[in-house]
Amino acid sequence: MVIAKLLKTAFGFKNHSVRPLDGYDNKNYLVENEGQKFVFKTYPKTAIEKSLLEAENDTLLFLKKKGVEAVPEPLPFSDGSLVKLFEVDGNRSWCRMLTFVEGNFMGDVAVNENMVASLGSFLAKLNKQLLDYDHIALRARQWQWDLQYLHLNKKYLVAISDPRKRNLVCHFFQQYERQMLPLLPKLRKSVIHNDANEWNILVKNGSVSALIDFGDLAHSHLINEVAIALTYICYDKEDPLTWAKPFLKAYHKTLPLTEEEIGSIYYLIASRLCTSVCNSAHAARANPDNEYASISEKKAWSLMYKWLRIGPQKAENCFREVLGFPKKYGDTVTNALAHRNKHLSK
């Protein structure tokens, strides 16, 4: 069934237009009907469990009940269901409809410190609401884009052809195993958005106004939300730590972070970068014409080398200081380690 006919049958739309949107693992469509905009999303039946789509809908509805307006809202089909199986262009596909959220992508505007701070406040408020939420399908989800399952990305190391780059990723994998695994039991867990990147964040009048695409939802460590957002804030900046400060200060003001969480941020940002480059390399090997994967990969590698030169001690001191905690490491230690890491990155 073609999309236009499907929408007429399933929603009763009569005078509507349909335009394809960019999608990573699924096909999305912008639908306009009688002055209203919607996003129609389709997923190959074999690519995702229905329970995860239901969990995403349930999460969005929970947030709406909590008074959070700055996220999409699931809309029911004519029979009241929120997820249905249809034949779409010859493929059996799960389908769902969401309201369209207006705003400019953060990736399309000039970012400044005030905008970064507004993102910190926005995510902290969202995460604070989700502390009261749980879903069994999200607890059961184990996949490579959830940082607590970083090891699942090791199978993609072979796709990184440059041995120097591959060794750098292995270095950060080892750091995670040595430094983070013993720390994980002390970290808070919650349902998190898990992908606050510049193409999922919407802005209006210089501030973050909304968050879209909840398809990467995970029941994971709360601090992962912070680390992932910081990764995308910093990965094209010359001085990453400077840009991390306004975000952390604003987030911490609304949802205070523990010292253990602050101490894990460096390793988790490195882990997100490893996840990104491993999956980009795998995607590029499978589809050499995938320009999106190539562009994202270059930015991730750039930050990874900067991150190595900065080192965990200097980063943690910076994070602690901006949040009102005393420095943990003396300048002699951080300078010596930064000097060593600078040579390692050459």
Describe, in plain words, how this protein is organized in 3D:
The chain is an alpha+beta fold and 346 residues long. It is 48% helix and 16% strand. The chain contains eleven helices and eleven strands. The chain has helices spanning 3-11, 50-65, 113-130, 136-140, 163-180, 222-234, 240-254, 259-286, 291-310, 312-322, 331-344, and strands at residues 16-21, 27-33, 36-44, 74-75, 84-88, 91-99, 104-105, 189-192, 201-204, 207-211, 218-221. Strands 1, 2, 3, 4, 5 and 6 form a six-stranded antiparallel sheet that branches. Helix 7 (240-254) crosses helix 10 (312-322). The protein is globular and about 70 Å long. The mean pLDDT is 92.
Q: What is the strand content? A: 15-25%
- What is the radius of gyration computed over CA atoms, rounded to a whole number of angstroms? 21 Å
How many β-strand stretches? 11
Please identify the structural class as seen in this structure: alpha+beta
How much is the average pLDDT?
Answer: 92
Helix tally equals 11
Range of helix content: 40-55%
**Global outline:** globular
Distance between the termini: 55 Å
Task: Summarize the helix and strand pattern as letters.
Answer: HEEEHEEEEHHHEEEEHHHHHH
Outline the biggest β-sheet: 6 strands, antiparallel
Low-confidence spans: pLDDT under 50, at least 5 residues?
Answer: none
Q: Layout of SSEs?
A:
Layout lengths: L2 H9 L4 E6 L5 E7 L2 E9 L5 H16 L8 E2 L8 E5 L2 E9 L4 E2 L7 H18 L5 H5 L22 H18 L8 E4 L8 E4 L2 E5 L6 E4 H13 L5 H15 L4 H28 L4 H20 L1 H11 L8 H14 L2
Antiparallel strand pairs: 1-2, 2-3, 3-6, 4-6, 5-6, 7-9, 8-11, 9-10
